[in-house]
Amino acid sequence: MTYNNSPTNPVYIGDTRNSSPHSALLNPDDFDFDNMSINKFTDIVDAIRTLESDMAHASGYSGSLRDTFWDDVMGVKGALDNANFSELDYRADDKIKISDFFAESVERTAKMEQENYRAFHGSHGIAQQKQQTVAKITSEPFLREYQEKAVAFLKTRETQLIDRQA
Q1: Does residue 102 belong to any structural domain of this protein?
Q2: What is the pLDDT of residues 2-39, one digit of tens each?
Q3: Which of 166, 159, 163, 146 is nearest to 22 (CA)?
Q4: Phi first, then psi: what are they for 133, rounded to 5°?
Q5: Which of 35, 105, 36 is nearest to 76 (CA)?
Q6: Cα distance between residue 76 and residue 55, in whole Å
């Protein structure tokens, strides 16, 4: 799937676009999850993780973000950060189909069933949850909605900054 920012569907216009920790999410030129590096996908996941955390803190929420979408995204982030590329047929900067990376993880955990049945259930369920989160993150409706959410949040932050400076 490729998602292009077009003049009829602008994502964000402003100075924050290039300097924001959310820039990977706000600048979706060629979101081609069927031909993307793990490094680029990690940048997108980091932007979502940061936005979730920033929005929670901006709303005054100071509790744990466990059992939220942020927690699901952190699971994906952990899988990306802990990937052992020496065991894979590609490097982090090679372009691959992102969903295949997580499907392979589910397949690897499925092989654990015969080795250690107890470990299989926990690991397999976690791998499937990550795969579902990635499917959500890489869907066009989610990305469009999330970009709108990011823009709305950043606009409120800009307004607050302007109000404080006045």
Answers
A1: yes
A2: 444 433 333 433 444 455 677 778 766 668 999 999 99
A3: 146
A4: -65, -40
A5: 105
A6: 19
The total number of residues shown for the chain amounts to: 166
Going by the DSSP 8-state scheme, the letter that residue 108 receives in this structure is H
The pair of three-digit structure tokens given for residue 137, joined into one six-digit string: 């993150």
Residue 40 within a domain: yes
**Does residue 129 fall inside a structural domain?**
yes
For residue 117, what are the domain limits?
14-83+91-165
Which residue in 147, 37, 156, 146 sits closest to 100, CA to CA? Answer: 37
- Sign of the CA dihedral 13, 141, 6, 21? positive
List the single range of 42-46, 84-88, 110-114, 159-163 with lowest mean pLDDT: 159-163
In angstroms, the CA 62 to CA 85 distance is 36
Tell me what percent of the residues of the chain surpass a pLDDT of 90.
31
Check if the beta carbon of residue 23 is closer than 8 Å to that of residue 17: yes
Q: Is the dihedral of CA 15, 21, 23, 26 positive or negative?
A: negative
